[in-house]
Amino acid sequence: MTVSGIGFAGRGQNVGLSFVKLRDWDLRDRPDLKALAIAQRAMGAFSRIRNALVFAFPPPAVIELGQAKGFDFQLLDCGGLGHDALMAARTQLLDMAGQDGRMVNVRLNGLEDVPEYRIDVDWEKAGALGAPITSIQTTISAAFGSAYVNDFIQGGRVKRVYAQADAPYRMLPGDLERLYVRNLTGDMVPFSSFASGRWTTGAPKLDRFNGFPSVNIWGEPAPGRSSGEAMQAMESFVEKLPQGIGFDWTGLSYQERQAGAQAAPLYAFSIFVIFLCLAALYESWPIPISILLSLPLGVIGGVIASSFRGLPNDVYFQIGILATLGLTTKNAILIVQFAKARVEQGMGLIEATLEGAKLRLRPIVMTSLAFGFGVLPLAIAGGAGAGAQKAIGTTVVGGVVTSTFLVTLFAPLFYVLIYRMSRKHRQAEAARAAAADPSGN
């Protein structure tokens, strides 16, 4: 579907857009038939057009959070520098972005300044002639635009009446001199007696963002780069612009910034909740600490697997990491729980821990295999929504592998080290020594 005269940036005679519907997923099973690959080939063909700027891009990942894939950047005139200064800053920013290898297809989502015919009204002359402001504006609006007058009934249907100058008399700037304005005494005053016109240039649409004059800029990260790197580069470019020029993010980019700022508190809160649950379960502080020391062992696998497949650090990766943290905690608990029970029965710390690691190896492997094969279809998914499924599945599968092998080796070590450092261990050793030698010698 194609539309002429209307685009994402606004309305204009030199604006248009087209929506291309791709074939079904089953008919596009090759990598070169994916949406992004098709858009890249289309950009190569469109770049050879000399009389227009044409961009091809997939839609955003989340509907109604933007209009294109990539980052959505707002350049703001926070210091009231004026339209010309904002346009100069925009040109400087686009030049720097075009030379940076971290982003591609950086473009303006707006309309360039166009020729305008400006009408200058001498308000002193208009007042002397008795022509009010409302009459002047209404006359121009009705003659060159249109004005609703009334309704009338014809053939049983209600129709509207609009007043407008005939087409031959509203085509050129000189036609303004044909207009007459009714003054306060009811006389007709020629428009040329109190107004003049001149050609100039200006913005066809005045964009505002959070109350500031703004320019909307779109762009995409380069292949092998993440959207976070491209956004960081745009922020660094703004620091080189004149003072008074600011920026802000909107759409998916704003949500990405919000999610990125919440990642650290989210992980910290998750670990804190795990720690409180373990402390309440074991009624002890050292044992939960030894279990929490095993959490990075599962995260390592998720990070390595995602990096190996070239997946970005997005919200799906973070969901997979949180799931991996739970699996890693479960594996460590299986060993620590058994070792703690044997120590309370009087067995030595090292012997109890080794026995716990040997006896609980089979349950750890069984549960890990069940969980890993359960999420394996996500890691190898294809079709619609495969990006999110691959991100979560790859992270969890990688975390399952390392949490199974590394936790089995290092969880007993962490438990022994923390238990020996605790006062409870020294009290238990003293109690066993007193039971072995009642005389105290």
Notes on the structure:
The protein is α+β, with helices and mostly antiparallel strands. The chain has 3 domains: 2-113 and 206-249, Alpha-Beta Plaits (2-Layer Sandwich); 115-202, Multidrug efflux transporter AcrB TolC docking domain, DN and DC subdomains; 257-436, Up-down Bundle (Multidrug efflux transporter AcrB transmembrane fold), CATH 1.20.1640. The chain has 13 helices and 13 strands. The strands form 5 sheets. Strands 3, 4, 11, 12 and 13 form a 5-stranded antiparallel β-sheet that branches. A two-stranded antiparallel sheet has the order 1-2. Helix 9 (315-344) crosses helix 10 (349-359). The termini are far apart. The model has no long low-confidence stretch (mean pLDDT 85).
Summarize the structure.
50% of the residues lie in helices and 19% in strands. The protein is α+β, with helices and mostly antiparallel strands and 441 residues long.
Mean pLDDT: 85
Q: Structural class of the helices, strands and pairings? A: alpha+beta
The percent range for strand residues is: 15-25%
Q: Residue share in helices?
A: 40-55%
Radius of gyration: 35 Å
CATH architecture of the largest domain: Up-down Bundle
Low-confidence stretches: none
CATH superfamily of the largest domain: Multidrug efflux transporter AcrB transmembrane domain
Q: What is the CA-CA span between the terminal residues?
A: 96 Å
Under CATH, the topology of the largest domain can be stated as: Multidrug efflux transporter AcrB transmembrane fold
In sequence order, what are the helices and strands, one letter per element?
EEHEHEEHHEEEEEEEHEHHHHHHHH
CATH class annotation of the largest domain: Mainly Alpha
Number of strands: 13
* Envelope shape: elongated
Biggest β-sheet description: 5 strands, antiparallel
Number of domains: 3
Number of helices: 13
